[in-house]
Amino acid sequence: xxxxxxxxxxxxxKPNPDNVKIFNMAKIDALAxxxxxxxxxxxxxxxKVDKDTYEILSGHRRYEAMKLLGNKEIPAIVLENIDEIxxxxxxxxxxINNRELTxxxxxxxxxxxxxxxxxxxxxxxxxxxxxxxxxxxKSSVKNYRKLTKFSKKLQAVLEEDLISYTGLVDDVTSFDxxxxxxxxxxxxxxxxxxxxxxxxxxxxxxLVHNISLEIAREENRAKSLEDKKLDREEKEAQKEFVExxxxxxxxxxxKSVNSIGTSLFEEFGGMAAYGFEQGSSIDDETEYADxxxxxxxxxxxxxxxxxxxxxxxxxxxxxxxxxxxxxxx
Length: 329
Description:
rod-shaped, alpha/beta, five-stranded mixed sheet
């Protein structure tokens, strides 16, 4: 008969493997003592898996409490014709309606509902479905789902119900796992200093704010170091550029001196050779020769002072000899 309560041996029952993934099994001792004092109320719900095995859909904590008390049997209702979606929905309904859930319990339950009930049912509005099933707002559904992205250490804080989750969701999702772990440590320390009492929304927000300030200071320090590095690299690049340009200018200056020296040598040398060959004594040519001699002498001094090397050196040597001959005329 449907919904008939029967006594089933605990040895023939097995937990739904999804239950432990979603809901915590804390305070079984207290539940066992309550059952011992007031008796077992109601019945757990199961489905028959095979001839000698039943899977629990609801009543996992009571099942554990009865085992703890040493009982051999438990009142149960055997549900029939249960498909996977109904099975998942029943698992959730029994827990959210019959026990107090932590924030993490509800966060995992919402995700489970979306993945095992809403989507398999063909829904395209999974968040709205979850909001209706859990009797909360759509924004709350979104916030609860963020909790499952927290670090394990921070999830443990919520699992123990040490604080309200609402003080975390705004900023903490942007923290990396290491920073979230530090926040978890700060929360535990603050709870300990508060004699184990709930810290309250404002205190939690202050702890989050302190972490945010540390992150901002660290980012500023990193940016300052990066700016200094870039400034140093820029100065080194500028120095290297100046040195290259200075070397190029020096090379150009040498080429210029060589070019001028060669030009003057050819001009003066040609003129001097002509003078030697013709034995000219025309005054204006002599004056012109004197002018070129003076220019050549100045050029020679510059060239010698700058230690010009290469072909110009031999040319200047020849020029010196020609100058000596002209000066003796």
